[in-house]
């Protein structure tokens, strides 16, 4: 897709994702925090911020000073850079990476920083002029409206999950088995030390520079049992509190550059990470959980690849139903998906979700000695996105 663009191995990092209202991130400006956190991560990865030419940021929830977007965040990073902001709901973190690849491919910039972030905690309440109404300011919007009301259908995200479960004839027990497996995968990755390679503990400071707290765990993740899942109240078909994700806060960052610069910046220059292809689809209204699978089907048709060609599969799964549909349609074993954790377990801050999942997927592929990495997810209502990356050890292909 972008033959001259690369993601330099090991120049990335993500914060932990504390659940809504469980950390000091609720007390700070998330744009400023993200810029300063990126500075910290680049320092740990031994990448001078002076190497950056451009910055693409992605977020979905309004934050103070958002009008100034990437240039302001770059100043918080400590390097005055041009750049822009992108937003595509839950696909934002992947879309920002793809746009960075396009920047490099076009020759406009050599080293592009990607920084995705969001804070669902204490998100602003917006009052919008409604000129058709008598009072003119009747329309009020809050972040929870995103989950509870799709203006195109009038339905909640949870309702789309139940509707999709009924369409595909899913059984609650299998969906619960998938959710339990996802939690076990996450804790296994945590205990093995895998997550320590991609997640970075970060301090949170107030405006006076005093320590508010330390983000050093995916707060909100809990141990679940199959028996506990079986006894949860069903909110809609195959949906319980244990088979859906939760809102959270966080940031994630990586770099996109040329093959030559990637070898210079990476601590392991023999590892080559290429962009292969991407696809997006829009399915029928209120069937969001099937959209990522349809995007994968389109992607495989475009490339001539099959699921057997994939070394790593990472699925953004706000509902375990997403993974059940993916497995049923593609025939891919769901136990081989999200082997190092996923958003169902560690939460969904929206903007950085797919960035963190991509970083984990690439790291997993390196552990396997290389291969194709498939990343899929949803994006607002009934849109699905999927992309493939190739990890090669021993130099560029």
Any chance you could write out the topology, listing elements then pairs?
Blueprint: E1 13-14, H1 30-44, E2 54-58, H2 69-77, E3 83-86, H3 92-106, E4 111-119, E5 126-128, E6 139-141, H4 143-148, H5 157-167, H6 172-192, E7 202-205, E8 211-215, H7 226-230, E9 249-257, H8 259-265, E10 271-282, H9 291-303, E11 310-315, H10 320-330, H11 343-346, H12 353-367, E12 371-378, E13 383-393
Parallel strand pairs: 2-3, 2-4, 11-12
Antiparallel strand pairs: 1-9, 4-9, 5-6, 7-8, 10-13, 12-13
Helix pairs in contact: 1-2, 3-12, 6-10
What's the quick description here?
With 397 residues, this protein is of the alpha/beta class. The protein has helices at residues 30-44, 69-77, 92-106, 143-148, 157-167, 172-192, 226-230, 259-265, 291-303, 320-330, 343-346, 353-367; strands at residues 13-14, 54-58, 83-86, 111-119, 126-128, 139-141, 202-205, 211-215, 249-257, 271-282, 310-315, 371-378, 383-393.
Folded structure, characterized:
The protein has 397 residues and is of the alpha/beta class. It folds into two domains: 13-124 and 199-225 and 244-265, Peroxisomal Thiolase, Chain A, domain 1 (3-Layer(aba) Sandwich), CATH 3.40.47.10; 157-195 and 271-391, Peroxisomal Thiolase, Chain A, domain 1, CATH 3.40.47.10. The protein has twelve helices and 13 strands. It has helices at residues 30-44, 69-77, 92-106, 143-148, 157-167, 172-192, 226-230, 259-265, 291-303, 320-330, 343-346, 353-367, and strands at residues 13-14, 54-58, 83-86, 111-119, 126-128, 139-141, 202-205, 211-215, 249-257, 271-282, 310-315, 371-378, 383-393. The strands form four sheets. It has a five-stranded mixed beta sheet, sandwiched between helices. The longest helix has 21 residues, at 172-192.
């Amino acid at each position: 897709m972008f033959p001259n663009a690369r993601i330099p191995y090991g120049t990335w990092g993500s914060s932990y994702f504390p659940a809504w209202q469980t950390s000091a991130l609720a007390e700070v400006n998330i744009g400023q925090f993200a810029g300063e956190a990126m500075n910290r991560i680049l320092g740990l990865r031994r990448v001078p911020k002076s190497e950056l030419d451009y910055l693409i940021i992605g977020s979905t929830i309004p934050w103070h000073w958002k009008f100034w977007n990437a240039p302001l965040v770059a100043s918080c990073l400590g390097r005055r850079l041009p750049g822009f902001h992108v937003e595509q709901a839950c696909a934002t973190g992947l879309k920002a990476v793809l746009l960075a690849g396009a920047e490099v491919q076009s020759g406009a910039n050599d080293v592009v920083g990607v920084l995705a972030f969001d804070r669902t905690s204490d998100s602003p309440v917006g009052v919008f002029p409604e000129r058709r109404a008598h009072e003119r300011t009747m329309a009020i919007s809050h972040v929870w409206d995103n989950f509870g009301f799709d203006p195109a259908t009038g339905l909640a995200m949870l309702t789309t999950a139940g509707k999709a479960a009924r369409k595909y004839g899913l059984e609650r027990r299998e969906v619960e088995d998938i959710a339990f497996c996802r939690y076990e995968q996450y804790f296994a990755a945590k205990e093995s030390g895998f997550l320590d390679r991609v997640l970075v503990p970060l301090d949170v400071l107030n405006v006076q520079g005093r320590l508010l707290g330390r983000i050093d765990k995916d707060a909100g993740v809990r141990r679940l049992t199959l028996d506990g899942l079986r006894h949860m109240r069903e909110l809609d078909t195959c949906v319980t509190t244990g088979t859906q994700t939760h809102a959270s806060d966080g940031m994630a960052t990586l770099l996109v550059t040329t093959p030559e610069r990637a070898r210079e910046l990476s601590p392991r220059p023999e590892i080559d990470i290429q962009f292969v292809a991407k696809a997006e689809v829009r399915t029928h209204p209120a069937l969001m959980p099937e959209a990522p699978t349809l995007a994968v089907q389109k992607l495989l048709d475009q490339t001539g690849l099959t699921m057997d060609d994939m070394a790593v599969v990472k699925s953004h799964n706000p509902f375990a139903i997403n993974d059940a549909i993916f497995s049923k349609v593609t025939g891919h074993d769901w136990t081989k998906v999200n082997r190092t954790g996923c958003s169902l377990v560690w939460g969904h801050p929206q903007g950085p979700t797919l960035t963190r999942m991509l970083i984990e997927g690439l790291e997993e592929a390196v552990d396997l000695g290389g291969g194709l990495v498939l990343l899929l997810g949803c994006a607002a209502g009934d849109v699905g996105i999927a992309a493939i990356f190739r990890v090669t050890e021993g130099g560029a292909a």
